[in-house]
Amino acid sequence: MLKLGITVLGVTDLDRAAAFWTSALNLVAAPEWSSDTWQTLHHADGSGRALGLMVSESPAESHPRVHLDLFTGTTSEQAAEVDRLIALGAKAVDWDSYPENPDFVVLADPDDNIFCVVDLSQAPSGS
User: Fold this and answer.
1) pLDDT one-digit tens code per residue, 46-71
2) Closest CA relative to residue 4, chosen from 53, 49, 41
3) Residue 108, H or E segment
4) Would you tell me how many other CB atoms lie within 10 Å of the CB of residue 55?
């Protein structure tokens, strides 16, 4: 039976990416499959795999078809998390596709992988 594994991000600097994502999402680098070109990140609470990092020579896409959405519960929490992620090395993105009154902020990780910080209190579903 097939099941979904983990999301994998292509990165140019494995150590930098691991440092960013472990700090950003409270993950831990795991020895599982670890190599010069791969790092598995697990949830710090021991509940399993969270994210894979793989060295890639291809550039990050400016408008990727697949990306990470990171959830917050309030507008103030979203603002605080955006500031925290930027302090960790994320970059604000001059996103040209924001809708009117967006519930998300677009950032890029240190390898220019686009991701969003979503305020679920402002999301269309309200949760």
Assistant:
1) 999 999 999 999 999 999 999 999 99
2) 49
3) strand 104-108
4) 16
